[in-house]
Amino acid sequence: MPAGNFSASLVLPNAGSPAEMGLRSFVASLALFDAVRAVAGPGANLSLKWPNDVLLNSGKLAGILLETAGDALVIGIGVNLAAAPDVSEVEEGAMRPVALKTETGAELPAEDFMSYLAAAYAPWEERFRTYGFGPVREAWLAKAAKLGEPIRARTMREEMQGTFETVDAQGHLVLTSAKGRMSIPAADVFF
């Protein structure tokens, strides 16, 4: 990881069922969106890519990875604050990596970004615990990249093309294609 970038993990003990754990990627991405907005300013061109990336100026700024450790959930977060990987380092067709500093001019030590992220995460986690996924889902959809537009979703077995219709109550990507409407629980998304 380039010097000056942010990487951290949050461990949530007793994070619920596997389905509830999976929905935390939406909680974390909303918190990450809010933290970046607080640093970059209200004019920053931010959006969310299903299920767990934050985009800035249509490039990938940050990502989230969920893992389990017993009954605990580990939410890993990485943000290109100072520098982005070279395009040659990412999979062909993947989002162009970007960095906060080069895209907005905002400079912030990784340690300081943690304060913004912690302050943004707490209310989203509380909302999720109190009201469930519904309000989180609605807030996430309001910030979704390519909603209502054509995208590609690639699973381990196949690649599907269609219109990104919504995210369902389970957090699945809903794609409408020539084959009909599909609910996709996990995939890599390209556009």
Secondary structure layout plus pairing:
Blueprint: E1 6-12, H1 18-40, E2 46-49, E3 53-56, E4 59-69, E5 72-79, H2 100-104, H3 110-131, H4 133-142, E6 150-154, E7 159-167, E8 173-177, E9 180-184, E10 188-190
Q: How would you describe this protein?
A:
With 191 residues, the chain is an alpha+beta fold. 31% of the residues lie in helices and 32% in strands. The chain has helices spanning 18-40, 100-104, 110-131, 133-142, and strands at 6-12, 46-49, 53-56, 59-69, 72-79, 150-154, 159-167, 173-177, 180-184, 188-190. A hairpin with a 3-residue loop joins strand 2 and strand 3. The longest helix is centred in the N-terminal third of the chain and has 23 residues, at 18-40. The protein starts with 5 loop residues before the first strand and ends with a strand. The mean pLDDT is 94.
